[in-house]
Amino acid sequence: MKPRAIFTKKVVTPTGKNYRRGKDMNSLAMYEDVYIVYDEKILDITKEAPGVNVQAQVNLVTPGFVDCHTHIPFYGFRSKEFIMRSQGAKYVDILKAGGGIHYTVSKVREASENDLVDFNVPFIREMMKRGVTRIEGKSGYGLDVENELKQLKALKKIKEKVSVGITPTFLGAHAVPKGKSQEEYLNELAESFDKFKDYTNFVDIFVDDGAYSVENARWYLKKAKEDGFKIRLHADEIARTGAAALGVELGAVSVDHLLKITEEDIKLIASSETVAVMMPSTSFYLGEEYAPARKLIDSGAIVALGSDFNPGSNAINDPTFVFHLAVSKLKMTPEEALTAFTLNSAYVLGVSESEGSVEVGKSANFVVWKVKELEDIPYLPSHDVVDFTVIKGEMIKNS
Ligand code: NIG
Ligand code: FE
Description:
Blueprint: E1 4-13, E2 29-38, E3 42-46, E4 54-63, E5 65-67, H1 79-86, H2 91-96, H3 101-110, H4 113-129, E6 132-138, H5 145-161, E7 165-173, H6 182-191, H7 193-197, E8 202-207, H8 214-226, E9 230-235, H9 243-249, E10 254-257, H10 263-270, E11 275-278, H11 280-286, H12 293-298, E12 303-305, H13 319-328, H14 334-341, H15 343-348, E13 366-369, H16 376-379, E14 386-391, E15 394-397
Parallel strand pairs: 1-4, 5-6, 6-7, 7-8, 8-9, 9-10, 10-11, 11-12
Antiparallel strand pairs: 1-2, 2-3, 4-13, 13-14, 14-15
Helix pairs in contact: 4-5, 6-8
Residues 71, 100-101, 104, 206, 234, 237, 282, 308, 310-313 line the site of N-(iminomethyl)-L-glutamic acid.
């Protein structure tokens, strides 16, 4: 790719190759009236006019959003369940009654690998246009070895069709399949870890009321670690089970959701290297409480943001809306929210060395905004505020 440049009135970005925790999440670098020179990577950020084609003059540039928690690829919708919940039914009761995740499992089992690809690519294109430059995608709607592998294979195919970076995660332990005990199914999965290893380095598990117990998660995740996986947990979302504490104990990369964590859990997370992943659009979509992001940051935790885009608990995939909720509901500053949704979420996915900030040497992954200030982004949720997204140097137009 030939080097090119844009001229921007402002660049706002966290810096570094590692996470930022606690109050450091607030400190961003700001450059004014600079050229960003790039091919697949950022080559220079300079006041000097570069000797290359200047493609655009723009107002504001930030790093691309790294959405470190999505449930792509899924198949089919659960709009009836959404209406049921709106009229008073609870997410966990629908799950326990065999609906919820199990409904999507039946749809995913029926779908072919190509069906999964075709169904999910349009959602990813929407996300790219709205500023997302990398997503995580999880299996978890197969609930048997064959169908879990099908989801991971579909993710691999999706990767060939879209420019966005994709980090796959094996979430075989997303629900307990009908007719099997937790122990029986987890054993089956653990015995097949080598098959999943061909597709991903991450193992995730849903530890909660209606899903897996802390006791079973402990041995399952220990085995995953022994087999060389990094581990993540859906933790303390529906009930306080001690899943976040387990994640810290086992050195998990992240504990996600955390709506029900205690003061004690906050201290544990804050003194660890385990990232607290907040997904306020799920709280919003379910009409549930919000995770204690403010307390986590004030206690020194590493906090990241993700969408949790999935067909059940959250059908929202718009990063500017997540950004809005991070500020309005999680009480994060715009600076903290930006760090959480770029550098720290890149860290969760193991790519902060090369992504997550606008810096020389990193991938040319950034968002060019129509608005002028960072605060304008959370202020204008779901407006058409992205001018274009750049992924590995390629311009993705928002039109
Ligand atoms: O992260 N909490 C568990 N898993 C998903 C929901 C998946 C679904 O309902 O299909 C979540 O919210
Ligand atoms: Fe999730």
